[in-house]
Design a protein that fits this description.
globular; two-stranded parallel ribbon; Rossmann fold; 299 residues; 12 strands; 9 helices; alpha/beta; six-stranded parallel sheet
Length: 299
Amino acid sequence: MSVPWLVTGASGLLGHDLVARVRRDGEDVLAPGRDALDITDTGAVRRMIAAHRPAVLVNCAAWSAVDDAEAHEREALLVNAEGPARLAAACRDTGTRLLHLSTDYVFPGDGTRPYREHDPTGPCNAYGRTKLAGERAVLSTAPEHGHIVRTAWLYGAGRPNFVRTLVRAARTGDTLDVICDQSGQPTWTADLADLLVRLGRAAVAGSLTTRLHHATSAGETTWYGLAREVFRLLGADPRRIRPVPAGALCRPAPRPAYGVLSHEGWAPGPLTPIRDWRAALAAALPDLMRAESTREMST
């Protein structure tokens, strides 16, 4: 089924892969930059959506600087909550299906089992609070048209990120100190983009019966475990990765110690969740290595 798409935040890590994924299928996608669509501007949002009437809008735009949000929570709230509320209102009025990206940070991060979709929330930092406010705004404003897609630990070729840093370090011979006491699910943006396309099509077809979706890779690891796996796959010595506790790094915003998301919610539906993080990482590394080679040639 071919549907017209609108992607906000298209220049970001996920937006880059999502736009490419939609275009690969030959479907129409509008990917306005922030200069063309500021999601905090009610008038601009309504004009854009009314003019193009997309079948699916995927909101990848976000204030994602976790530490900066501690000092600028009001500004982060404007982007992460009030902006999505404006998008949801416009989508409700045009019948557009809205897929709003959220995060594992909406949970407190002190769990011992993967968080289910309807487990109690309780963010431990300002970024998580603003993203939770965005979820609530979307679901209350567009209960028939809004879907929340929680993800975490994204990496990809489109922009610099932790895994690309590891690829670079493996080449240079650097030794890295990496946090060993925070657990999560490394998720390749290409895999997430594919799932978002399937979600969008299912939403348009009316086959989605739930509004909360956990979209991370299967399995779990720590940042330290991820780093060692990258080095192992690249033939670098994993002993060059040194484990350090999160408390050793003085950062303004606390991070959840456990951010693993359950995929039980996919069981009754027509779609399947993302594959295991190790398999995805092995598939992603060639793209990330090419991206790093291109960066080196341009500097």
